[in-house]
Write a structure and sequence with these properties.
single chain, 158 residues, alpha+beta, Nuclear Transport Factor 2, Chain: A, 6-stranded mixed β-sheet, 5 helices, 34% strand, globular, disordered N terminus, Putative lipoprotein, signal, lipoprotein
Amino acid sequence: MKSLAAAILLAASLAACASPAPATAPPVPATAAADAEIAAITAVLDAQDAAWNRGDIDAFMAGYWHSPDLRFASGGTVTRGWEGTNQRYHTRYATPELMGRLDTSDYEIVLLAPDAAIAHGAWRLDRAGDTPSGLYTLVMRKIEGAWLIVSDTTTSAD
């Protein structure tokens, strides 16, 4: 009988260990501090919009992590590093006409930790002759007190 009880206890213990752990940590609960971090992230995104609409790609890039480990994915390609991403923007949007006017909207910002967040949103460029648009997902980290984009996946609806 002791053997049967031990076997059942062992099986129950193994089953408990085998149950999957949550895939991700829950988001940081809403607090005044969390709200302040979300406001700081939104300010980075708004500053990027303003820089873009001034035709200032270099100021737009200030929202990105200046690191060779930055990841930017769009159009079926992945660009690694701040330098490569900056060059990609300067090449693809070489004139004010190509840049157009950027409008971002539908922000969904989730704090994952005090120094990590995911930001989702929509983008649209208003240019003479076309209005490309799409969605983006940004992984943001608070590095040396500043929220920066460390990974950007931007898709086109067109």
